Automatic annotation (TrEMBL):
Predominant localisation class: membrane
SMART domains, A to Z: X8 (SM00768)
Name of the protein in its database record: X8 domain-containing protein
InterPro entries: X8 (IPR012946), X8_dom_prot (IPR044788)
Cellular component, GO annotation: plasma membrane; plasmodesma; side of membrane
Amino acid sequence: MQEAMNYACGSGADCDSIQPGGPCSQPDTVFAHASYAFNSYWQRTKSAGGSCSFGGTAILVTVDPSESSIYQCSLSSSRMKSSD
């Protein structure tokens, strides 16, 4: 998951907000930061054909838990583990 997040952050995602002290840096977990990075990447690249797969670690969802009205790229439930 870290590798996929690094790809997203290096390929168009705005990851400044998940850096230490950033407004979205908490919770400070790979899972939370990857979810943010994947969504940022997809929102910025979808019109140019960007995907939301990240090697099978992410999926498109129709309900954003914080907004309930937009499409969001989020982590695949099959990839959620307590160690992430």
